[in-house]
Design a protein that fits this description.
heterodimer; A: alpha/beta; 2,3-Dihydroxybiphenyl 1,2-Dioxygenase, domain 1; 8 strands; about 40% strand; globular; B: about 90 residues; alpha+beta; Arc Repressor Mutant, subunit A; two-stranded antiparallel sheet; 6 helices
Chain lengths: ~130, ~90
């Protein structure tokens, strides 16, 4: 068994598509209209055949209270791997991205947390080389 | 909640250490720091209870920033300890 799909609920799919592609730098994989909404997935340009990331509409009534509650406690909806958290932090800040947690050294990992502008907090994480 | 009970617990002291290191943290960030830097694997609910004790003692304050609740260290209640048992001048000389 493999993980081929993960994702987040977003409050605006088109805005999310722009943020995840133009700002974060992922690539559009699928954009299939489904009535009012669409099946939109993105992939990493470093792994275009890899795990797809779904930008799922948040129209189910349970989603907003759930996401609001985890955001209130600062809990990210998901985490992306990067080679250099500090470099991504500087690049994305220059693009106007708001970070709720600046790069933080936690020992084996360095993490930072950003706001995806579509309802979610997203963690980026750099694995430090094992000594 | 008096300040002595609040700082009697090592987890609560670690929470204050981390809030001194960076002001304005969410519950998530605090829990990550406690786990990774202090080896404290308490649940988020347990840490939230500790935060409640610290807030009742006036050692932290909380404020909603954007959509998240953040926590700050407040040292003022600790002044009472130094005032109650001041360091005498002759002690400094020894």
């Amino acid at each position: 068994m493999r993980i081929h799909l993960a994702g987040v609920f977003v409050n605006d799919q088109q805005k999310a598509l722009r943020f995840y592609t133009e700002t974060l730098g992922f690539q559009l994989k699928h954009n299939i209209p489904l009535g009012e909404f669409a099946w939109i997935t993105v992939v990493s340009p470093e792994d275009p055949e890899g795990t797809e990331f779904l930008l799922e509409p948040d129209n189910h009534p349970a989603v907003r209270p759930f996401v609001d509650a985890i955001v209130a406690d600062g809990i990210p909806s998901t985490s992306f791997a990067v080679d250099d958290v500090q470099a991504e932090y500087e690049r994305l800040q220059a693009e106007g991205v708001h970070f709720v947690q600046p790069p933080t050294d936690l020992g084996p990992v360095i993490t930072a947390v950003l706001d995806d502008t579509c309802g979610n907090l997203i963690q980026i994480q750099e694995q430090k080389p094992q000594p | 909640m008096d300040v002595y009970r609040a700082i009697a617990d090592p987890t609560r002291r670690a929470i204050l250490d981390e809030l001194v290191d960076r002001s304005g943290q969410s519950l998530f960030e605090l829990c990550a720091r406690l786990t990774m830097k202090h080896g404290i694997n308490s649940s988020r609910q347990a840490i939230a209870q500790h935060l409640g004790v610290l807030e009742a003692a006036g050692l932290i304050r909380t404020r909603r920033v954007g959509r998240s609740k953040l926590h700050w260290f407040q040292g003022a209640p600790l002044k009472a300890i130094a005032e109650r048992w001041p360091i005498s001048t002759d002690e400094r000389d020894t």
